[in-house]
Amino acid sequence: MSEQNPSEIPQPPQQSFGAAPASEGGPVVPAQPTFGEAPPPPHQTIGTAPDPVAPPAPAKKKGGVLRIVIGVVVLLVALGAFYFFNRNDATKAKTGDCLAGTSTTELKAENLKIVDCTSADATFKVVQRVDDKLSTESDASCTDPATLYVFWSGKQGEKGTVLCLAAAGK
After folding, report:
1. CB-based contacts of 150, cutoff 8 Å, min separation 6
2. Which is more confident, 18 or 90?
3. Sheet harboring 98-100: ordered strands across?
4. Global pTM value
C-alpha cells in the first residue's frame, strides 16, 4: 500500500450533535440544545403579546331602570286615586263652598261632600273656615253671624278644622 497523507484521505462529513445536516437547498432546522443549555424560546410573532384570558364581565342587573319606572307609575296612580276619591272631602271646603250629604243633626265628615252651590243636593254653605282649633274651641271659633251649624273635623285631642255653616240658599 502506498502511503497517503491523512489530509488526503476522504472523510465523511462531520456533524455536530443536535445540528441538522446541511443539505443543498433543503430547509434549515434549528439546532437542538446540547446538554446543560437552555431550550430556545417558543416561536412568537414579533410585536404582539399573547392574549390573556379575560375574566367574564359580571352580569348586568337587568330591569333596574324598568323597576324604577314601574315604581314611579304605581306611586302616581296611587296618588291620583287618593286625590280622586278625596277631592270632594268636606275638610277641603273653603269659604263660599257648598256641602251636601247629611242632616243637620248628624254632621259627619264621611257623609259630607263638596258640591256646586246650584246643585239640588246643596244643604250647607261654608260662611267661615278656621284651621288649627281643638274640638272644644270650635263653637267659639265661628264669628260670622250667618253661622247656624258648626262642623269640626280632626283627631280628638289634636287640632283640626272648623267649618262654620249656614243653610244653602236654593
Report:
1. 138, 139, 141, 142, 162, 163, 164, 165
2. 90
3. 113-115, 98-100, 124-133, 160-167, 149-153
4. 0.48
CA angle, corner 147, sides to 144 and 153, nearest 5?
Answer: 100
Distance CA 87, CA 110 (A): 13
Chain centroid offset of residue 104 CA: 51
**CA distances in angstroms from 116 to 60, 97, 122, 166, listed in the order given:** 56, 7, 7, 15
Q: What is the pLDDT of residues 1-60, one digit of tens each?
A: 555 555 566 665 555 555 555 555 556 555 565 566 666 666 655 555 555 676 776 666
Helix (H, G, I), strand (E, B) or coil at 57: coil
d(CA 89, CA 112): 7
What is the amino acid identity at position 105?
A: T
Cα separation, 126 vs 148, in Å, equals: 10
